[in-house]
Structure of Cellobiose phosphorylase:
Amino acid sequence: MNDNNVYAFNDEEKSIRINRSDLPTPWINYLSNGRLHAFVSQAGGGMAWWKSPITYRMTHYRYQNVPMDGPGFYTYVREKDGTTWSPTFRPCETPLDDWYAEHHAGWSKFVGTKNGVTATLKLFCAMDTDALCYDLEIKNDSGEEKELDLFAYADLAQLEWTTDLFYGYYIQSQVTTFYDEDMDAVIYRYQHTPQPFVEDVPLIWMAADRKMDSWSGDREKFLGPYRWEQNPIGVEKGHCGNDTIECGHPCTAGQVSVTVKPGETERVVFTLGVAPGGLIKHKETMANIKQDLETFRSLEKIDGQFQALENWWSNHLSKFDCEIPNKDIQRQINIWSPIQTVHNGRYSRSTSWHAPGYRGFGYRDTATDMVGVAYRDPKWATDMCLYLLSQQFEDGHALHTCYPEDGPAMSRGASKHADDHLWMPMVVYAILSETGDYSLLEKDVPWLSEEDNWTTYGSATVWEHLMRGVDFTENNLGEKGFPLTFDGDWNDIILRFSRAGKGESIFCGQQYVIILRQMIEIGKAAGKPQKDLDRLQDCLSRMVKNLEDHAWDGEYWRRGYTDEGDIVGTKEAEYGKIFINPQSWSVWAGVGTEEQNNSGMDNAIKYTATDFGLRLVHPGFKTYPHDPDPFTGYNPGCAENGAVFCQANGWVIIALSKLGRAEDAWKIFGDMIPHTALNNIGLERYEAEPYAYVSNIIGPENKRHGWANVTQVTGTAAWMDLVGTQYLLGVRPGLRGLEIDPCIPADWKSYSVTREYRGRTYIISVANPDGVVKGVKSVTVNGVEIEGNIIDPATVSGGEVVVEVVMGE
Ligand code: GLC
């Protein structure tokens, strides 16, 4: 339990218990089976969508609005005397005798007690059928028989989110809810059809595991005028009204009344499901719902679905497990970072309680997420890799945002960026390191049409796609020889220096060096033509020389050039004197001398360190009315303009570990563990979840410094996941095998790691008898000492491989 008793982790169960409902912000969890998705907060607020939150948004959520965090997956317990309360505490807000919530990997639980009755709500998505279960258990410890009315509710949305926002007042004539007597289910049909996949449009249904006593499909009637979810008239009356609509606002509500004897427990499961095909094949879809209901009318089958969900997660989380002296860090590495990486892989930067689900996948964002996913689920990373490559144009650059489930008009951003395509070699390298299967390079992938950014044509192999990315960068070098920034590199607001199309990115030049080195390694291992390798080597040599000749500012690395040819990130500048990315990426790229790179990192720390990580830039650019930065308007200390941009700290840690600077690396890694950051900064200032990284933490130039801004949807999770497992604990897959290269605190005597690798389980124990921070003296595999520190998987046998590592000079 942390100091303020607000929350407690349960590492055994891989969960967190939250004891306070009115947190400064919603602390959310994602519930998903990979097709049906939802997020839910500790207070039961949340939203559900099927496949795409733009095209198939099932329920509403009030973004940028008050009261915050609603509506959600609400249940109500109504006692005989009319007292009504919710196991999620909200929306009723009736004081409870006891309350807590728990978030687990993929499901959440809410436990409220009042007047001797404990209601436990378990929310989860069934694994094989696209339905969300409101699994409600009522335990009567009151000593007297209880007659209770139980209700479940969802505020249904018009499926196409932008249409709902812009044209909802017309489209409300195209929505219907009806009650199917035979199935005892409320069903919602959305009849507006311009979205791209008409045949997919689902019916949405709600039913209970038994006969419902009343139901509603009409939000206005169920809630009542000038009421809201806190006090629906349907709940107050103890009857939902049995209303449906042929225009208006749909909802779905159900009521089941139970009598629970003292000491007994009753379980009622309401289910909110989707069944695709409702418009085109109405009859078949209705028949499918009926079939699905067979699952949700059997508690045993519901439990089976829950178990299947648990199995998916425990399999995913079992791929890597460490035991280290610091339990807060261990918990983050083993449990919460990989959980968040899965969520980001699914939702990119798009959907959370504050991200309204509009963006789809950012190309670079999803590419980097897949670098983090590859070591636990190479198949998923491969599928996404092939999808992303299909969003690459024939000239080699890539579409900036895209989403497989949406149509041509939605979430497809065609702005041109210096870096998007350059992340793909990293993804391929990560997958090949994991699988060793070079046939990936020969897979055919189409090109994206420049005409509509939607259709695809022709095809080329994965290797050709990567080579085409190199062509694009080569064809678009600026006057100083660095990649033209265009609409931005990794840093979204760096484009302010390149509006006229002439600005150049040194950082992107460093990224280019890294991926050229990776491509050369891949090309050699896969036996690619010498002419390709020569070309890559030539590009590499030129860019390294250019960086050495033109990127050094005397004490640290510069960031780039403006349209006018002025240097960005130099001591001569008034604002933005130093950016941290070029310092860390230079180390990673292996450019410059060790002295230069140490100096770069020293200066990054000197100018940008806070107690919760390094800031992206120092000093932040001023904005209006003082306007050396008339373009972005970002206040100093905010986001890319001087916040601790968490993701970029992952790269700082990679650099520090490569330089053997364990103390600095672990300080930053440790300080940024969300639980630690929250406790150091203070809950009321930090606000966000102690189990999920945020995009950025406001920097000291801003009076809100310490505020954790943009939670959950950030590349930080994948990078910290990777940094912790591969660079600090140093169990790093490569094309030649599993490299053991730890960088640990000097006072660690030992630690251990269990990791899946190419079909085997490696049980690795590391001893540090001399108290070093880096350096491996010996590696023994299944009792035999090997040469060097890379375990070649071709030389090992058996399902389990025992590895003993001794660190030392
Ligand atoms: C946001 C964007 C990401 C970008 C980063 C830095 O996280 O989603 O694409 O790289 O900001 O600007």
